């Protein structure tokens, strides 16, 4: 296993780590090799780790031996991985190559995903932190002490909040606070336990800090877009209060966004749970969906007003269609069940490309990029919808996620989510649930158009192409993360492929198409 500690990037307020970086990394390698692949947020599951590179290390609290209090170490570690071992079942490969590594004047930096780790270091770990243990290094500067996931230690999480309250630099990190935000001190910290892509900690009932786990150079859209929306006075997205990033003056290249603190919408419920609750008692969801359509359109309008927009003409539409096609081919290579539908699904992408052939232009803007019911919160008191998690699809490269795109891509993604809800749960996929999905989808589109968004019914080719692309993404996502869920996007694949067949054979079939009809104001 290879190990590289780029000492240039190792910063410590006490400059202790810079001299011990290689020994630190060597002592952590056996621990991380075992612990990292077990984490929900580890993106490279199924491929053996062949080496580590220590990109940066910062002591946030001294980790000196013999102390009664824990130390806190911030690390950025690149995990190098090979393909699956010979003879092992082939894992679903990553959808994209690892994010490009930051260049270094000392030479090329090894490729591989870069992860953010916050490590607690303690001589005598309290028993309640046993689930957080990573291991005990057998040598190096932390020899004999217990290293553990600091984001599960309320005391260390509280310290992180203190750092965010006071803007400034520490080692290789920079802590930033929005000018008019008031963050009180001493709020109790608790990690959240829901399934998520990153790791989040709630402070009191006031703030939530998301710590990005897989990092990439550049501004994370989950900071960029909420900041822009706050500037535009859009009240649909919690406005960031503080964040931290790598300090561009301490390292190379662009800052890497590492974590964002935003108001916690206490007592709110997420749209996924609300939709499942409605389905469980056969309740109507159209008024909620219509209101969610309003919220989505408001966010899109604000994004288009504050951030650059562009136009998609023939060359751009051709490129988008080609990219969708590539993803289809790549997914079918590893999910054989998709293969019989590829030819008919491809017609959706051909129709998208054809839109550019008559000289028309379509507008593109910054969008959410991974909109689904789990990214929506409805407040308990006012019943008002908010949108969260603007990171985009986590498996796509950052540059792609930050590109302007047609806003209907978010609409199509949300329509997929209503379909997911109707096909999950005990009665998933029964006729009543499917009719629930059809009405809910229509109400959402109606709300979106009412609040000024492009009426999705006026862009059926765009909608079908983006819905198909999303279903293909979901096929890969489920194959990789939740194989039991694969039938859900596969049902959509059959429907969307059937939409082509019925269009060719017998004209429009409302049961098989993108289901945009029926928005009859019953919401
Ligand atoms: N501002 C907020 N207020 C209340 N809960 C939130 C807020 N932001 C996130 N959450 C909760 O945290 C969960 C994870 O947040 P999310 O941003 O989706 O993280 P990830 O990108 O890691 O999946 C959400 O599903 C939601 O339950
Ligand atoms: O966790 P993220 O928010 O980053 O998003 C990823 O995981 C989602 C599942 O948690 C996944 O969403 C898919 O499943 C949802 C139900 O669990 C459903 O509502 C969505 O429509 C469906 O796409 C999302 O695609 C993925 O990027």
Automatic annotation (TrEMBL):
Q: Tell me the route in metabolism or biology where this protein functions.
A: Glycan biosynthesis; glycogen biosynthesis
What's the catalysed reaction?
Answer: D-maltose + ATP = alpha-maltose 1-phosphate + ADP + H(+)
Q: Does the keyword Transferase apply?
A: yes
Q: Composition bias, kind Low complexity: at what positions?
A: 499-516
Q: Which SUPFAM superfamilies match?
A: Protein kinase-like (PK-like)
Question: How would you classify this enzyme at the top EC level?
Answer: transferase
Keyword Hydrolase: yes or no?
no
Region Disordered: what ranges?
83-107, 499-523
User: A Pfam family name for this chain?
Assistant: Mak_N_cap
- What are the EC numbers? 2.7.1.175
| GO BP annotations, alphabetical order | glycogen biosynthetic process
Every copy of the Maltokinase N-terminal cap domain together lies at 35-153
Q: Which GO terms describe its molecular function?
A: ATP binding; kinase activity
User: Keywords of this protein's UniProt record, alphabetized?
Assistant: ATP-binding, Carbohydrate metabolism, Glycogen biosynthesis, Glycogen metabolism, Kinase, Nucleotide-binding, Transferase
Report the sequence similarity comment from the record. Belongs to the aminoglycoside phosphotransferase family.
Q: What is this protein called?
A: Maltokinase
Look up and give the organism this protein is from: Streptomyces paromomycinus (Streptomyces rimosus subsp. paromomycinus)
């Amino acid at each position: 296993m290879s190990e590289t500690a780029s000492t240039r990037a190792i910063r410590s307020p006490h400059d202790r780590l810079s001299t011990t970086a290689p020994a630190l990394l060597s002592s952590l390698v056996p621990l991380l090799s075992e612990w990292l692949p077990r984490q929900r947020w580890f993106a490279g599951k199924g491929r053996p780790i062949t080496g580590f590179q220590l990109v940066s290390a910062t002591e946030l609290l001294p980790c000196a031996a013999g102390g009664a209090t824990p130390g806190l170490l911030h690390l950025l570690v690149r995990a190098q991985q090979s393909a699956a071992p010979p003879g092992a079942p082939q894992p679903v490969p990553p959808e994209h190559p690892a994010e490009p590594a930051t260049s270094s004047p000392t030479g090329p930096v090894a490729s591989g995903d870069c992860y953010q780790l916050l490590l607690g270091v303690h001589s005598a770990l309290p028993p309640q932190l046993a689930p957080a243990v990573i291991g005990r290094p057998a040598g190096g500067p932390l020899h004999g002490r217990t290293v553990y996931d600091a984001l599960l230690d309320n005391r260390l999480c509280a310290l992180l909040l203190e750092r965010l309250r006071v803007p400034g630099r520490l080692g290789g990190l920079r802590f930033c606070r929005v000018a008019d935000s008031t963050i009180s001190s001493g709020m109790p910290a608790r990690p959240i336990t829901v399934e998520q892509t990153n790791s989040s900690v709630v402070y009191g009932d006031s703030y939530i800090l998301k710590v990005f786990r897989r990092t990439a150079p550049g501004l994370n859209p989950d900071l960029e877009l909420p900041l822009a929306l706050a500037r535009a006075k859009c009240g649909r997205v919690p406005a960031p209060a503080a964040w931290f990033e790598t300090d561009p003056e301490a390292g190379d290249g662009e800052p890497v966004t590492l974590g964002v603190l935003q108001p916690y919408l206490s007592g709110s419920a997420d749209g996924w749970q609300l939709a499942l609750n409605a389905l469980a008692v056969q309740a109507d969801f159209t008024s909620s969906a219509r209101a969610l359509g309003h919220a989505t359109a408001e966010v899109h309008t604000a994004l288009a007003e504050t951030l650059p927009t562009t136009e998609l003409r023939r060359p751009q539409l051709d490129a988008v269609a080609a990219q969708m096609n590539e993803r289809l081919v790549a997914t079918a290579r590893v999910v054989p069940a998709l293969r019989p539908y590829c030819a008919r699904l491809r017609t959706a992408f051909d129709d998208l490309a054809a839109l550019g052939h008559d000289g028309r232009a379509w507008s593109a803007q910054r969008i959410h990029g991974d909109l689904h019911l789990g990214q929506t919160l409805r407040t308990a008191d006012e019943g008002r919808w908010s949108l969260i998690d603007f990171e985009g699809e986590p498996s796509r490269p950052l540059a792609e996620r930050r590109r302007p795109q047609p806003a209907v891509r978010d609409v199509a993604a949300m329509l997929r989510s209503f379909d997911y809800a109707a096909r999950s749960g005990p009665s998933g996929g029964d006729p009543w649930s499917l009719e629930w999905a059809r009405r809910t989808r229509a109400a959402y589109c109606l709300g979106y158009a009412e609040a000024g968004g492009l009426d999705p019914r006026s862009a059926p080719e765009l909608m079908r192409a983006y819905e198909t692309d999303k279903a293909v993404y979901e096929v890969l996502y489920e194959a990789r993360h939740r194989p039991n869920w694969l039938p859900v996007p596969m049902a959509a694949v059959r429907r969307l492929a059937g939409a082509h067949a019925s269009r060719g054979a017998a004209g429009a079939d409302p049961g098989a198409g993108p289901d945009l009809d029926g928005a009859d104001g019953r919401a």
